[in-house]
Structures are given as structure tokens and as C-alpha cells.
Write a structure and sequence with these properties.
Strand order of the largest sheet: 3-2-1-4-5-6-7
Number of helices: 17
CATH superfamily of the largest domain: Glycogen Phosphorylase B
Structural class: alpha/beta
Order of helices and strands: EHEHEHEHEHEHEHHHEHHEHEHEHEHEHH
Number of strands: 13
Strand content: 15-25%
Helix content: 40-55%
Shape: globular
């Protein structure tokens, strides 16, 4: 029997690995699929929520690497993952996305001569000040096979000289989770809990260091949120990084009382909020994709995106980090100026099945 280890480290990884784990069930007589949780983003309650909601088994391996600088984190993940690979001797490892766990585990597998596949390959922001961009570039260079989620990924890899034989355009595996759990998302009670009316509130997420680590930038975001809250209820599930900086800069008490500030939410509750919102304002990557699939208006507070199909085909607007320009874009949506969009090719809930079929043919 062949052995495959998939790596999860941060919350977005769970939504990508869960469908792959389920798809491998069709080959359970041939393949043992195990999950390694590095602990990169670890909150015991939230991890349990995500594993339970996405019906994933408890990880076969938990590395417990949760703190330290980025370099310390990568180094500690590498040391711990090396022990796992030497002990388990898998035939293949699967890494997803662009977090520190992705590159750390990819490097170890490469040095030990273990085949690597990268799911969500080829995405580029062309901004090497983003740690995720460096992680993406290096992981794609190491991987033996690259699974691509959108057309720009194919072009980027082609420009980088990657052989066509190493690339498969399979669609977006994170959309598999969204499709599979739409019934649970629709059944969420979160709107009642927060006393919200569908299409009458704005959902906001902000966590990127470039937006929240600097006092002036964060103050501009707070002013923006307060302006919007005078017109709509704002729901603000707050990232620990953002919460810590609001407190450090003495801004935590200055938010408008029409802003619902809450801890990070589970998958189904958060997606229910996104699905029923009038508008999502975010600096996240994955939310741009989810709103495109849900056909919800999205304004991205970044100067670049590694997911351009959400702008060219989808409902996403890439506005930049000037909060006055962001406010103008929000006001246009409030005034009825809606960006129409379509769902990209192969974002159909079947990506994980395509990935597993290709892996069985090529590697297992």
C-alpha cells in the first residue's frame, strides 16, 4: 500500500486538504492518506471546530510548532517534519497554498528524495515583500507536480519555464469545500445570533501586516470602519494580530457601536456571513475566491492579488490600501453599482477528485 502525507498548517489549508482526504477514500485499498498538522496557526478550540466541521480525521501527526519568528517557525517545522518523514517513509507528500508550513515541509521532502505535489500552484502577486510570494515561488520550484487553480497560474508557470508535463489545471480545491458544505452553511444560525438581516451588513476581515502592524495604517482602517458603520452594520471577526495591534495602539475602544467585533469564526458560520452579506471588505486571499463563487461583492484592500481571475472574471475589486479610495468603492456598491461576475472554469466542487485521479496515474 502506498502512503501519502498531506500537510496543514494554517486555517485555509484545512479547506483545501479536507476534500482531498475524502477523495482518497475511493482508493483506500491502495493508498493510506495521513494528515500532518504543523500547528503553525494553532488555537485548540478553532482547530477542533475546523476538523469537526470539515469532517476531517484527527491528524496522524501534530508537530506543535506555533510560535517564534518566521525563520524560527520554518526551521522548527523542518526539524520536526524530518523526523516524521524518516519514520513514515511516505511515497508522496502534498502541500497546499503558500504558508510557512508549505515551504518548510516541501524543503524537507525534497532533501529526503520524497516526491512533492503542490496544490494551488502558480499563483503570483509579483510582490516579494510578501512572505507568501517567496513561499509560492520556492515550493513550485521544488515540486514534482503542480496543480493549478486558475488560468493565470498556467501562464506564470509557463513563463518560469516549467514543463507542461509537470502541470495540471484542475480547478480550485477550496471551492470543493464550499460546494460540499453549502447545506450546513445555509443552516447556520449565525445571522440570528448576531441579529443580522441578509444583504444589510458588511463583513470585514483585516490581518495583513502591511495593513495592521503600522499605527497610521490601522488608524485609517478604524476611521474607515467607523464611517461605514454609520450606514451599515459591520461584522468584524478579528484576527489575533489585528486585535493585539488595536490594543497596543489604544484603538480598541474607538470602534463604532454598530461594529460587531467577534473572535475568528468556524468555517460554516463565516461562510454563512459571507454568503448573506451585502459586501465583503478584506485583505485575505481565499475570501476573494469564495466571494467570486458565491457571486458576492468583494473589495480587496491590497495593492496586488495572486488571484487575478477573481477580478477579471469574478466579483472582486482590487482597490489598493488608500482607505479613502476603498470608502469610495464601498459607497458605489451601497449606491447600487454592482460588479457582475462569473464562476471560473472547473470551480465546480470536483477538483479533489481530479487531483487524486492524476496522482494515482502518475505517482501511486
Amino acid at each position: 500500500m502506498k502512503k501519502v502525507i498531506s500537510v496543514v498548517g494554517a486555517r485555509p489549508n484545512f479547506m483545501k486538504v479536507a476534500p482531498i482526504h475524502k477523495a482518497f477514500a475511493a482508493y483506500s485499498d491502495l493508498v493510506q492518506h495521513l494528515i500532518c498538522h504543523t500547528g503553525q496557526h494553532y488555537d485548540k478550540a478553532m482547530s477542533k471546530v475546523f476538523f469537526d466541521e470539515l469532517e476531517m480525521p484527527q491528524p496522524a501527526f501534530y508537530l506543535g510548532i506555533s510560535s517564534g519568528s518566521q525563520i524560527e517557525q520554518i526551521a522548527n517545522i523542518m526539524l520536526a517534519f524530518e523526523n516524521i518523514l524518516k519514520q513514515e517513509k511516505p511515497d508522496l507528500i502534498i502541500v497546499v497554498g503558500d504558508v510557512n508550513s508549505t515551504i518548510a515541509c516541501g524543503l524537507v521532502a525534497s532533501r529526503l528524495g520524497i516526491k512533492i505535489v503542490h496544490v494551488e500552484a502558480g499563483l503570483r502577486s509579483f510582490d516579494r515583500e510578501m512572505p507568501e510570494e517567496v513561499n509560492r515561488l520556492l515550493t513550485d520550484a521544488l515540486a514534482d507536480h503542480l496543480f493549478v487553480s486558475e488560468p493565470a497560474g498556467l501562464l506564470n508557470l509557463k513563463h518560469e519555464g516549467v514543463s507542461d508535463a509537470k502541470i495540471s489545471y484542475v480547478g480550485n480545491v477550496m471551492i470543493d469545500s464550499l460546494v460540499a458544505y453549502l447545506p450546513k452553511i445555509n443552516a447556520s444560525n449565525i445571522l440570528n445570533e448576531f441579529k443580522l438581516t441578509a444583504d444589510k451588513y458588511v463583513l470585514v476581515t483585516m490581518h495583513r501586516p502591511s495593513n495592521v502592524d503600522d499605527k497610521e495604517s490601522l488608524l485609517e482602517i478604524v476611521d474607515f470602519l467607523n464611517d461605514i458603520a454609520a450606514m451599515r452594520t459591520v461584522v468584524f471577526p478579528i484576527h489575533p494580530r489585528t486585535r493585539n495591534h488595536l490594543k497596543a495602539f489604544n484603538l480598541d475602544e474607538s470602534l463604532h457601536n454598530n461594529i460587531i467585533v467577534c473572535d475568528p469564526l468556524g468555517y460554516t458560520d463565516f461562510m454563512c456571513l459571507a454568503k448573506n452579506s451585502e459586501l465583503v471588505v478584506t485583505d485575505s486571499g481565499g475570501i476573494q475566491e469564495e466571494t467570486t463563487f458565491l457571486q458576492k461583492q468583494c473589495i480587496t484592500v491590497r495593492n496586488n492579488t495572486e488571484r487575478p481571475v477573481t477580478v477579471t472574471l469574478g466579483t472582486n475589486q482590487l482597490i489598493g490600501t488608500n482607505m479613502q479610495e476603498v470608502k469610495t468603492a464601498v459607497m458605489e456598491v451601497f449606491g447600487g453599482k454592482i460588479k457582475s461576475g462569473s464562476i471560473p472554469e472547473l470551480w465546480d466542487g470536483m477538483t479533489a477528485k481530479r487531483i487524486c485521479a492524476i496522482l494515482m496515474e502518475k505517482f501511486l
